[in-house]
Amino acid sequence: MPELRKDPVIGRWVIIATERGKRPTDFERIETKRGGGFCPFCPGNEAKTPPEVYAIRDPGTQRDGPGWRVRVVSNKFPALQIEGELHRKPEGIYDKMSGVGAHEVIIETTDHDHDTAHLPVEQINDLFVACRERMIDLAKDKRFRYIQVFKNHGAPAGASLEHSHTQLIATPIVPRRVVEELKGCNQHFDWKERCIFCDIVDQELTVGSRIVCVNDDYVVIVPFAPRFPFETMLIPRRHEHYFEDAYRGDFLSLARIYRETLGRMNVALGNPPFNVVLHTSPCNDWEAPRHYHWHLELIPKLTKVAGFEWGTGFYINPTPPEEAAQFLREAAVPAGPEGSQA
Amino acid sequence: MPELRKDPVIGRWVIIATERGKRPTDFERIETKRGGGFCPFCPGNEAKTPPEVYAIRDPGTQRDGPGWRVRVVSNKFPALQIEGELHRKPEGIYDKMSGVGAHEVIIETTDHDHDTAHLPVEQINDLFVACRERMIDLAKDKRFRYIQVFKNHGAPAGASLEHSHTQLIATPIVPRRVVEELKGCNQHFDWKERCIFCDIVDQELTVGSRIVCVNDDYVVIVPFAPRFPFETMLIPRRHEHYFEDAYRGDFLSLARIYRETLGRMNVALGNPPFNVVLHTSPCNDWEAPRHYHWHLELIPKLTKVAGFEWGTGFYINPTPPEEAAQFLREAAVPAGPEGSQA
Question: What ipTM, to 2 d.p.?
Answer without folding.
Answer: 0.90
